[in-house]
Amino acid sequence: MRVVFEIKHPARVFMYGSVARILEERGHETLFVHSGRPTALRLLERMRLRHVPLPPTGGSLASRALGTLANAGRLAGIAKEFRTDFMVDGVSSALVSRILGLPHLFFFDSEPSRLVYLLVAPLTRYFVHPSSYRGPRPPGKAVEVDASKELAYLHPRRFRPSDEVFEYVGDKPYALLWKNTFTASHDISHYGFTLGEVVEIVRGLRELGLRVYAGSEGG
After folding, report:
1. Which pLDDT tens digit goes with each residue over 113-171?
2. Cβ distance 54 to 71 under 8 Å?
3. Given this structure, which CATH class describes domain 2-154?
4. Which helix H or strand E contains 119, and what residues bound it?
5. How many Cα atoms are found within 13 Å in the side-chain-facing hemisphere of 176?
6. According to CATH, where is 3.40.50.2000 located in the chain?
């Protein structure tokens, strides 16, 4: 079986990376398509997962809609060339799977992402959600799992903590700041901290004696 995973967020690399490894161990082939975010790209390469980039879809609702349609066309070509049997996640892959007559699975656990639900629910075949999910479910498609997506990569069978991290951060207290790109559909009209506010936060954390590490979803 040949499976295509569409990645929109770096965390999904961790989530589906473990699934891909299990499938490959059983003789199946996998391919990841992603939006080219540097963080996701580094994770895919570090985990040695086969991948193909797609152009980013933009931040506004209009540019995201046009970008999603354009990427669906590109993804259709990729899926045909890969001779895909099954597709996982992503609005574009949900549309492509319907056009190509392929089964599609979508994992959903975000009640605020109403637009994503409205787009994907009519197209996907398997709507997988955790038991904690309290949002709408498409009739006849919902599959409830008594777990969370974090277990896909933090379960003891898949995750082994490494002491190497102490070589980098030491054993002193520290703080981690993470910058969201705010380009997801559920981020429209939402904003994060300003640069000035971030500077004040960092200054305050340092005054508490914490070493501050900063990361970004986009790079």
Report:
1. 888 899 999 999 999 999 999 999 999 999 999 988 888 888 888 888 888 888 888 88
2. yes
3. alpha beta
4. helix 114-120
5. 4
6. 2-154
